[in-house]
Amino acid sequence: MNKVSQAPPRVRRVSPDNTPKATKASIIGGLVGVFIELYDNAVYGFVAGTLAVVFFPSDAPTTSVLLTFLAFAIPFFFRPLGAAVAGSWGDRIGRKRVLLVLITMMSLSTALVGFLPSYAVAGVWAPIALVLLRFIQGFAMGGEPGNGNSFLAEHAGEGRRGRVVSYANAATFIAMLLGTLFAALLTAVLSSSSMEAWGWRLPFLLALPLGVVGLIIRRMADESPEFAEAEEEGRVTGSPLREALASRETRRAMGTTIVLPLLNSSGYFILFIYMPSFMKDEMHFSALEGLLVTAIMLAVGTFAVLYAGRLSDRVGRKRMLSTSAFTMVVIGFPCYWLLTRGSFATATVGAVLMSLCFAGTNGVMQVTLAELFPTRIRTVAYGVGYNLGTAIFGGAAPLLVAGLIAATGSTWIPAIYLVLTSAVAGVAALRIRETAFEPLKR
């Protein structure tokens, strides 16, 4: 294995514009899946307040919200399993086949949430069914990052991987923006009783037609040229996870995939998933105001991640990641203070500044992780490490933060969590090797 991984890298030839026509179609196919995955996942957070009433009725509203975020967090601990299984498949049979399976699983499980009966109708079986469907979502989400982002990085061509993979990060922002605007629209036009009776179902049901479109587009994509070449040359391994864990160098790189994305994980769930509920329940903004602040953050972040990815191809991944993380450490508390002033305008300013710091990390993170591993074990090694960190520091973040606020009475808990994880991520970024200017490992 060492001889293979140390072989002289080759540079794949591309057309003058550095983007073969087939590659463009394949990149779109990769982006569609990422878009749908993040939309499906984000919808849950955006209607969490309503789901708390529908599936976890309680005389104590805080208890209902905590139970709702517990249902949000549990599937994230299935993500490493999804990464291990789907990542191994991706390294053995190809990225494209696995991505077709994952988008089907994710879309169907999300749409089925929209058909579930409420607690009032089915009793305890309603939240049980919700959690079971969330398990399926967790498995699919676990397999998506390693396969999807490796697929994009391997199609990108030299010198533009940051730019191409940042398209996927922008797609996640657009997906969350769509979910936010949909939730905001429903909140604005429906009464609370209508929202709880049937309105909450609509964002979940939208996953079905989105999934059909995504499946069609992904079927049109080409297999990753890196994997196709590895298969042709007989470099595909039958046990990619075992091979990854057998190498000390790879185990160390997998450890990096757990720690390096700390800001990516905490920022995503604190700023975009938990923020609407936090602004409504703790800061006493209206539900619509909380959603609108989130929508503005996402709109700004969409352009920021594209710029960050493109810039990282010029200045390097390491500089982008460390600068973004340490900037968040500096501005985290002042920006959070703006959120607590009770003004929509100042809350928006603070949220947008934090969103820009997050975008500097988010726009570069996935390509950095893909560049750490060789083709033969890339999807499984990248996926397992990344999803372990996401489960621990991201999926559990809303539950942890909501629980600590309830226990301490301090509304500064989200800022403390965000700043601490940013500091650790910044230190980790300083310790990685620069990979932006090298070919992908074989």
TrEMBL record:
The chain crosses the membrane at residues 64-86, 98-116, 122-143, 164-186, 198-217, 258-275, 287-308, 320-339, 351-373, 385-406, 412-432. InterPro entries: H+-coupled_symporters, MFS, MFS_dom, MFS_trans_sf, Sugar_transporter_CS. Keywords: Cell membrane, Membrane, Symport, Transmembrane, Transmembrane helix, Transport. Residues 1-21 are annotated as: Disordered. It is a multi-pass membrane protein. Residues 26-437 form the Major facilitator superfamily (MFS) profile domain. This is MFS transporter. It comes from Streptomyces endocoffeicus.
